Amino acid sequence: MECFKFNLFDLNFNGNYLYPVLGLCGLAITYLGNKFIKPTLFLGGTIVSSTGSYKLTEFVLNEINHNNCTIIYIITGLMSLSGGFIALKLYKIMNFILGFLTGSSIGYLLYISVLHKICLGIYFMYDNMFWLSTLIPGLLGGIITQYKEKELSIVLTSLIGPILIVIPTKELIEKKNLVSNNLIKFIIYFVIYTFFSFTGYMLQKKRINDRSIRYKSPTSYQLSI
């Protein structure tokens, strides 16, 4: 009996569903913030670990001529959960990545709007201006998050999420050729990004303020009386 295979790379993704899913993830990151990020980190660590642990366990058992699906399932399950918890423990590194993605998102928005007109040569299928526009702001964003982790948590998610909404919008506009004027495109991208970024920040800020008021101890008021 052949064992059920845990292999992420064997999955076939339909491109028609990729951009809608990307947009939904953008909405979740924008308005839920860390409530969405932490479960996503855990799930991502679990999925990646399941693939690697399954392959490794299967290889070892094949080498010793002992094909036992139960052993593969148990080890894969344990390693998958371990991978999820390790991903949460590496939260500081993930914060750097979030900061990097934030800076890159802003740089990407500038690139598709204005900077793509400046050609500095091609490197690895993309214009060098693309790499400069995404990598430099990304590195700066990652470094800043290491020093302002708590303060920037809300800001980061409200900046990263909207770009995931802009990307499907850009794909839709270009594929359907809805708008040809670059200035109008920039205005559309800018308005969408600004709206979701602002509303996401305000909603998360309000939720945290309400929570702090809710958990505030009443003893201080009793002492004053």
Q: Please identify the structural class as seen in this structure.
A: mainly alpha
Which regions are unreliable across 5 or more consecutive residues at pLDDT < 50?
220-225
Q: Give the strand order of the largest sheet, numbering strands 1, 2, ... along the chain.
A: 1-2
Mean pLDDT over the residues: 75
The termini sit apart by 75 Å
Number of domains: 1
Helix content: over 70%
Rg over CA atoms, rounded to whole Å, is: 22 Å
Please give the number of β-strands.
Answer: 2
Biggest sheet overview? 2 strands, antiparallel
Q: Count of DSSP helices?
A: 8
Beta strand %: under 5%
Order of helices and strands, N to C? HHHHEEHHHH
Overall 3D shape:
globular
What does this structure look like?
With 225 residues, the chain is mainly alpha-helical. It has one domain (11-211). It has helices at residues 15-32, 34-63, 69-89, 91-113, 128-147, 149-176, 182-214, 219-224, and strands at 122-123, 126-127. Helix 1 packs antiparallel against helix 6 (149-176). The longest helix has 33 residues, at 182-214. The chain is globular. Mean pLDDT is 75; it is low at 220-225.
Helices and strands, with pairings:
Blueprint: H1 15-32, H2 34-63, H3 69-89, H4 91-113, E1 122-123, E2 126-127, H5 128-147, H6 149-176, H7 182-214, H8 219-224
Antiparallel strand pairs: 1-2
Helix pairs in contact: 1-6, 1-7, 2-3, 4-5, 4-6, 5-6, 6-7
